[in-house]
Amino acid sequence: MTFEEIKSLDEQYVMHSYGRFPVALDHGKGATLWDVNGREYIDFTAGIGVTALGHGDEGWLKAVTEQAGKLGHISNLFYTEPYARTAEKLCTRTGMASVMFGNSGAEANEAMIKLARKWSFDKYGKGRGTVITLHNSFHGRTITTLAATGQDKFHNYFFPFTEGFRYADANDMDSVEAVAGHDVCAVMVELIQGEGGVLPLDREFMEKIADLCAKRDWLLLIDEVQTGVGRTGTLFAFQQYGIQPDAVSFAKGIAGGLPFGGVMANEKCRGVFTPGTHGTTFGGNPVAAAAACHVLDRLDDSLLTQVREKGDYLRAQVEELALPCLGGTRGLGLMIGVEVREGWTNAALAARLIDNGLLVLTAGPGLRFLPPLTITQEEMDKGLAIMRETLR
Ligand SMILES: *Cc1c(COP(=O)(O)O)cnc(C)c1O
User: What is the average pLDDT score of the chain?
Assistant: First the structure.
């Protein structure tokens, strides 16, 4: 099919909930993609932080196809090996005690919120179900995770939202103390606010949050849906923050392109979910779990070191380009935000870059790069050259 044919079918039959760019992608290899007309693009998006190993990775393909040929799905009523092995890898590499699998980021956060509320209920009874989250956060699109998201623009249309969330300002302990109360059971944060604009939380602020959680017996919940699975140069970002969370959610990159996610909990919370209290039909699907096993095996120290080096390189190069429309960069590893200067909009810049063959994302008022963790030097340089030509 041609681009025009695909587009017209899509416009006729698909709900218009996404503003799409005028490109129909067909196939990819590494961080390079081709559209249906055979035109090449460099990918600084990885499908919004998902295809951690790049497109068409051979080891990933083998893991997925072998498992699909053996057993595609069986439900949570039975044991499977990829499921148990993925859980073991996640726990041994993070110090967490146990895992619950789901299929997406929002679902992982729903599970994490349910875990916190039930943990508190089991210990203290009713009336202690409030979760403190931060302004400018993003936690997902279900009714509850929209309520958890600390941005007013997400609190429209879908009333009534789930109650039991209060919002504080990032990097401001007074603001957290101001919303504390006897009804609180947990604090939930992203260590780098992703959709909000790639805004890292201060280390000192997180240490104080962890202290406050310990003092008030609140759970510390970290949403690592975007920052997790090697994106920031360690398996999870909390491992660079010197904190031990009670629960950590993950999704996006975990299965390298298949829908998968979940929540890990520490020893204190391992017994919260008992049979019948939480579940999902697809969660831990063997094909997605086999993919996750493969992704976790590939994310060894050497690849994680490369993520940090490539991130430093990309940021230094973007700053060196000194393009009139772009300001400073921020982030960690290959999660990079670029400030857009006054007089330009991130949407217009992204559209022009994509038109010229470089796929990028926006976040908050800036641009965001989340390339595959395996992006090559040549692909990074091609992407930078497109930026220079397009935006100078
Ligand atoms: C993407 C994202 C989510 C939502 O994940 P979905 O898979 O789209 O449901 C939640 N939290 C953070 C931090 C995210 O970046």
Answer: 98
User: Which residues lie closer than 8 Å to 105 by C-beta, 6 or more apart?
Assistant: 139, 140, 223, 225, 226, 249, 251, 252, 261
Structural domains of the chain, ranges and CATH numbers in brackets: 3-52+301-391 (3.90.1150.10), 60-298 (3.40.640.10)
pLDDT digits (tens, 9 = 90+) for 10-31: 999 999 999 999 999 999 999 9
- pTM greater than the 0.90 cutoff: yes
Q: Which of 258, 333, 255, 361 is nearest to 298 (CA)?
A: 255
Categorise residue 297: left if φ over 0, alpha if ψ from -120 to 50, beta otherwise: alpha
Q: Write out residues with Cβ below 6 Å of ligand 1.
A: 104-106, 109, 138-140, 190, 194-195, 223, 225-226, 251-252
Query: Which tens digits make up the pLDDT trace of 226-242?
Result: 999 999 999 999 999 99
pLDDT-based confidence at residue 316 (cuts at 50, 70, 90):
very high
Q: How far is the CA of 92 from the centre of ligand 1 (A)?
A: 24
Among 321, 301, 294, 296, smallest CA distance to 381 is for: 321
Span 102-115, pLDDT tens digits: 999 999 999 999 99
| Per-residue pLDDT at 294 | 98
Under a CB-based contact definition with an 8 Å cutoff, are residues 36 and 2 in contact?
A: yes
- Cβ burial, residue 38 (10 Å; 0-12/13-18/19+): exposed
Radius of gyration of the chain (CA): 21
CB count within 10 Å of CB 148 equals: 29
DSSP per-residue letters across 229-291: TTTTSSSSGGGGTT---SEEEE-GGGGBTB--EEEEE-GGGTTSS-TTSS--SSTT-HHHHHH
pLDDT bin (cut points 50, 70, 90) of residue 190 is: very high
Work out which ligand 1 atom sits closest to the CA atom of 195: 15
Residue 23: what are its φ and ψ, rounded to 5°?
-140, 135
- Ligand 1 centre distance from Cα of residue 105 (Å): 4
> In 3D, which of 251, 181, 167, 255 has the Cα closest to residue 212?
181
